[in-house]
Each structure stands twice: as C-alpha cells, then as structure tokens.
Design goal:
Blueprint: H1 4-17, E1 39-51, E2 59-71, E3 85-91, E4 95-104, E5 124-136, E6 139-147, E7 149-150, E8 155-167, E9 170-181, H2 183-190, H3 194-200, E10 211-224, E11 229-240, H4 242-245, H5 248-253, E12 257-270
Antiparallel strand pairs: 1-2, 1-12, 3-4, 4-5, 5-6, 5-7, 6-8, 8-9, 9-10, 10-11, 11-12
Length: about 270
C-alpha cells in the first residue's frame, strides 16, 4: 500500500487542480452561489488501484474528488479515464488544445523493504499541454506532453487512440496507448547508481536512456443512470518496454506488466436556469 503521506499529497493535488478541468474558454472556480446561471457542474468521486510506483508488481489505492464545468446546452465531451486533468484554450467540434496536468506518486522504502539502498523518489506533478482530435465521430486521438516538477524533472509524453460507442445509456471505449520518457525520467525511476547497487546488494548499476517506456491499452464503460448520475468503470494495462523493462529494479523487484482499475461516480447539477 502507498504511504499515507503519498496518498494525502495525491488527493490534495488532484482536488486542487480539478477546478481547472473545464470545457470552456473562461476559468471558473467552484463556488456554486458565485457562478453565473447557465452552467452545469459535475462533481466526481474517483477510486483507483494502480502500481505503487513505476515498475512495481503490487497495487496501491487512492481516492480523490474532481470537478468539471460546461455551459448549459452543450454536450459533455468524452474523457478517457487516463486523460490528464485538462483546460481547453481552443475547443471546437473536432479539435481541442490546452493545458494538462497529472500527478505521479513517489517511491518510498516503506512501500517495499527490498528497495533498501535505492534513493527515495518524492511525488511529482506534471504540467504540460495536450492536443485532441476527433478523426471521426467515434474515433478520438489525443497526445499529452508534460514536464515533471519535484519528484522528477524529465519530459514525458502519452499518445492514445480511443474508439467510443454509445448504446442507449451505455458508453464504452477502448484503445491503444504509447508512453515515452526522456533520460531524466527513465534514470529517476528505472536507473541504479553504483552507490545504490552497492548498498542494496541485489541489483547492478544501470543507466537507462530515454525513449518508449511502455505500450498498452485502456478500456472503460459508463452508464448514465439519470441526467444527474453516472458511473464509469475502467481498466488500464501497460507493458514496460525498452530500457524501462530492462531495469534491474523491474526485473528483480517489480513487473513489466502494469495494471490499473478504477471506478468513478459522477453527479451533475445546473447553477441556474
């Protein structure tokens, strides 16, 4: 299980940044009595199980709230469960561009005693930009480019393609994923210095390079119970590749297969008529 400190920091970051996950050009903060009429607010409760740290073979649980806003009369846009929290600068029928952010948990000795001697990695936030394009009315392409702050200071990118279909109250989606990281990112999470190798005694020194870090897929299913309530369940799978997969941390203590599952409950309400 992830440490309480890491869980608290994750919840704080996601809750605070969720206020910018909007679908309009003007920023709005969550204060229903101060919002102008004609907005729809969606409050979400999220529960996820994900690898304790990049390359780990066990899962930790995290729960956090999030918010999104849209003008009344506009259709709620599809959002994949592994999208970063987004703010659109440009938002038309097929194309979106804007700012994005993600949280990356840390790696701590208390997570796994086998990590003895390896450096602690603090949590990180990853601000960046995203671009999204609907190739057809059921096929979405999305790319995110982000830079780490605090726990790591590398560049990372995520590319995804989603097939999205609606069947009555159900909406299902699935599609492939590709992740990349530069050498600063891979050396932070998958590298081992000679000093760390000597202290740990079970892993050799390793200096990875940047490149493709994983390939995988994400699938989700949503059900719209009413105009106000909906739930979404999802599963993600990443297979570490390249220098990330060859890391002695992954080979000795972790797994190349990275699985995540989650559930989101959403409640929407209007701020006025």
């Amino acid at each position: 299980m992830r440490s309480p400190k890491s869980l608290a920091l994750a919840t704080l970051f996601l809750a605070s940044t969720a206020s910018v996950s909007v679908h309009a050009a003007d920023p709005v903060f969550f204060a229903p009595e101060a919002l102008p009429s004609g907005w729809i607010v969606t409050v979400k409760g999220n529960l996820r199980a994900q690898p304790t740290y990049p390359g780990a073979d066990d899962l930790s649980f995290i729960g956090y709230p999030s918010l999104s806003f849209r003008r009344a009369g506009t259709v709620e846009r599809f959002s994949a469960p592994d999208d970063g929290l987004s703010f659109s600068f440009l938002d038309d029928s097929a194309f979106r561009f804007g700012a994005v952010g993600r949280f990356q948990g840390g790696r701590y000795y208390e997570d796994n005693e086998e990590l003895f001697g390896l450096k602690k990695i603090d949590w990180a936030v990853e601000p960046g930009v995203f671009v999204e394009y609907w190739i057809t009315d059921f096929l979405r392409a999305r790319a995110e480019l982000r830079h780490g702050v605090n726990g790591h200071h590398g560049f990372v990118a995520d590319l995804g393609l989603d097939v999205v279909q609606t069947f009555g109250a159900f909406t299902v989606s699935a599609g492939p994923r590709l992740s990349l990281g530069d050498s600063d990112f891979t050396r932070t999470y998958f590298g081992v210095t000679p000093e760390e190798a000597a202290l740990n005694g079970r892993v050799d020194a390793y200096r990875p390079s940047g490149g493709i870090t994983s390939v995988g897929a994400t699938a989700s299913a949503s059900y719209q119970w009413s105009e106000q309530w909906s739930t979404t369940a999802f599963v993600t799978y990443e297979h570490l590749v390249g220098d990330a997969a060859d890391s002695p941390i992954v080979q000795e203590f972790g797994s190349e297969s990275q699985v995540g599952v989650g559930l989101t409950v959403s409640y929407s309400f209007s701020t006025g008529r």
